[in-house]
## 1
Amino acid sequence: MQVSNTEWSTTEQTVAKAAFEKAYEREINALIEKVRHQSSTLTTLEDLWRLHDFLSAKRHEIDGKYDYSYPMLLFLFADLIKDGWLHIDELKSLDQDKLAKIAALTRL
């Protein structure tokens, strides 16, 4: 599936940016809630280091995942849909070919 030559209209760029930001916000808010819960149960130094390790891993994962580069957006959107951070209907203003590619990638 070739995506590197995919053209993005101004409208599609706006839709893509909004979807990207919405998914990022959802994932970050979920992470904050999880950390609040985990931190409320800290009782030992080992618990604290475990939380630190969890946060370090999540930072690496999130920083690597949320790369807003047009050649990779279709793959990112498919992953975000599979992970539940984005819904395909939030991308409905994209070109039908792009939507078909995203839908196909969600099934891989």
## 2
Amino acid sequence: MADELVHREEPSPNRNPRKAPISMVVLHYTEMESADAAMARLCDPAAEVSAHYLISEAGEVTRLVPEAERAWHAGLSYWRGVRDVNSASVGIELDHPGHGLGYRDFSDAQIDALIPLLARITGTYDIPRANVVGHSDVAPARKTDPGELFPWDRLAEYGLCLPRPAKLETGDPFDNDAAFYLALERFGYDITDGHKAVEAFQRRWRPERIDGIVDGQLRAILFQLLLDRDRGLAR
């Protein structure tokens, strides 16, 4: 399918039929030396990984798997009751060294290319803002990408993801950490590894401090997110 937002087509063999309709987008970083190295891995049958799109730091968008098919990007993952995240999602890889090779800001050109692609995908499949997530959100025990420097605020300006709550109506709504974990699960996270789940929540919603410790600010942010969702303001 022709797409003016896509610059190249490099079909990956790592794909299979979907088992669910598309309801989310998962954003990743490649954590590799270059876009070419990432491309080679995503197209290598032996690697058994892929994504629908790869966006270079220069802003070049390459399609590897058609959206109608299931790409292998999320691995063992979970979000809001969905355990086969690969079947329900579009996966977008961002060419980036990641935490392992020198974590840094994402390039403006890359985010400028991501925004219209994401807008087209979310519009086509009526994907709610709450389901535009990072790999660490759906696999908190294993992954940290796209990480604390990813500019979620830029995406939120265009209505492409949920913004960080600007106003916290209740200062400290949960009686104890167990109540917070249950609320975190209700919001969508896998809390099997509670510490890692808290780190993932911090990485997305309070990136200035990531320590895996539940505190009053985190409790207030989570409560506000749930309150907004219950009011129908967080789709």
